[in-house]
Fold this sequence. Notes:
The structure holds 2 protein chains of 2 kinds. Chain A is α/β, with parallel strands linked by helices. Chain A is built from 23 helices and 20 strands. In chain A, helix 13 links the parallel strand 12 and strand 13. The radius of gyration of chain A is 24 Å and the shape is globular. By secondary structure, chain B is an alpha+beta fold. The longest helix of chain B has 11 residues, at 16-26. Chain B starts with a strand and ends in an 18-residue tail after the last strand. The interface between A and B is medium-sized, with 27 and 27 residues. The site of thiamine diphosphate has 19 residues of chain A, from helix 17, helix 19 and helix 21. Thiamine diphosphate is lined by residues 391-395, 418-420, 444-447, 470, 472, 474-478 of chain A.
Amino acid sequence: MSQMNGASSLVASLEACGVDVMFGIPGGAILPAYDPIFSSPIRHILVRHEQGAGHAATGYAQVTGRVGVCIATSGPGATNLVTPLADAAMDSVPVVAITGQVPSVAIGTDAFQEADIRGITMPFTKHNYLITDPAQIPRAIAEAFHIASTGRPGPVLVDIAKDALQKMTDFEFPTSISLKGYQPQAVPNTQSIIDAADLIAQSSKPIFYVGGGVIKAEASRELLELAQLLGAPVVTTLMARGAFPDSHPLHLGMPGMHGTVAAVTGLQKADLLITLGARFDDRVTGKLSTFAVNAKVIHADIDPAEIGKNRFADVAVLGDLKHTIAALIPALRSALSKNRPDLTPWLHQMNSLQSAYPLGYDTPKDGALSPQYVIERLGKISGPHAIFAAGVGQHQMWASQFISYENPRTWLNSGGLGTMGYAVPAAMGAKVGAPDTTVWAIDGDGCFQMTNQELVTCALNNIPIKVAIINNESLGMVRQWQTLFYEGRYSNTNLESKRVPNFPMLAEAMGCIGLSCERAEDVDEIIEKAMNINDQPVVVDFRVHRDAMVWPMVAAGTSNDDIMIARETAPDWDSQEL
Amino acid sequence: MAQHTLEVIVENSPGVLARVAGLFSRRAYNIERLSVGPTANPETSKMQIVVNLDGHALEQVIAQLDKLINVIAIKEILQESAQPTVHDTQPDYQN
Ligand SMILES: Cc1ncc(C[n+]2csc(CCOP(=O)(O)OP(=O)(O)O)c2C)c(N)n1
Ligand SMILES: [Mg+2]
């Protein structure tokens, strides 16, 4: 136990939690904390916007599996964290946000830079704190890290009044944490495992519906073993890309609104969904009442509130997926030894869908560059260990579709909230977490204009990320909906970003290398060039054709049975035996 | 109408009422009545919440409540008039 002020106690607590880096911007209310930060071994990266700090913490957490930390001042500093915290909540990312608050006597008086950030963030933090007594700081920080990183991960905010940072206190870091109202169940109940295994062994059309929880639980290896043991097809959701190797013959790809015909139809026609860390999101299920109507459901998740939320579960398995899948393997082996259904016809159906409807795209006749081609080449040239962080829009869907993900934690995106502006700061955080790995942000010309200022942070802090702007001079995904559902009335989706801004010049102004590419024959060379620049961030403006669309597509609110593979083109179901 | 009475033991910490009320409001659960009172333990309070399910599953309401870190225990108080829980999924929507 030692005497220090609350600010030093905060920094000592962060050190005790093993924090090695945090992203933030100082200001009046948090200023006392920045004094001990100055002499702490924790690396503080000074960002250019607090939103960048929040997404960087998220990117760091998604790549490392550790808690990401961001820090901001009261009022506008804190409110700038709102979007990344909501984003981290939707995608279950362990993030701790520290904010300064006005002095405790001023709370409630509409003081300068006062905002009730605890109240504001209640709906999308896993938990949050307002600390006015310095003696509470170590426990609040210890609990925040515990809550953020255990159970279903999520963001936790700790708001600390300025006077609590200034007053003297005794620093004593708690040796144990016990929260009466928070005891996540890690080990699944044995009976639920047996029930799940028995149900699987009775099924002739099972499919693994794999969500982001598998990556969070570090359960990819176990999943591979389980999937091979059963020999059933696998789909990986947008949050689970990389949880199961794309190159594996059992993998049907991504399900959902822009999923493959095989993955979408596999879920629709299955008699059993083996749901692992997925949540029956509307982007996966389409019109819920028509989703996988003949399937029974095994739902394995760590969050009890996901069970039965959107879809009834015939067998619920509560627990950490690493334990759950590890326990399922011997249970299934024994169940299959008594009864092993023949999955060959089912696999055959799926394989024929896969070969009839692979992902593809048209090359524009006028010689313009295809965005899908650029993204495909980025994936091929960067290899299976490179990390990709996408923005939100068409480029995000193509990045999910046309890059082969072989390893967990190599695909980062804003799945649940769909946050434009996520890619650049998330890539920055990812590169800080994995400095020896190639990190690409695949960003839209629209998204890039929301948070590109963090390239200054990257340039100044030796964080050499690479950015591929898929410049279709429009808010492409919105434009696609206008093409399909609003008779091509392109209201406010034309960004004119082939005219302004000049992206390579903008990149150069921020201390990066700026490149540009407009022709298919130059793509490889420019990617290679970017791959060889490792001492500075690089931005490539890929000037692509504007009218490319994302296919397949299940229109919002419609049934997965109505999947379209191109405009007004459904798969030829009659030629498929289903 | 599917009315249920829940007795919820919560940590007596600032903001806990806002957390519970906020949860009900953002998930569109209807509160018919809510009262908060002390328990023998000064560190906890007891809430009595009468919820009108209106298509939501009771298990889901309880599971969501239980996710709040400050919620320690939840118990359903059974009444004569209690209706069996309806298991309904969220309505389909378009966005
Ligand atoms: C912060 C935010 N604002 C608005 C949207 C709605 N939105 C979804 S995709 C999109 C277009 C994105 O444009 P761009 O970054 O150029 O990507 P593209 O679809 O063209 O690949 C918009 C505006 C959003 N998802 N996030
Ligand atoms: Mg665009």
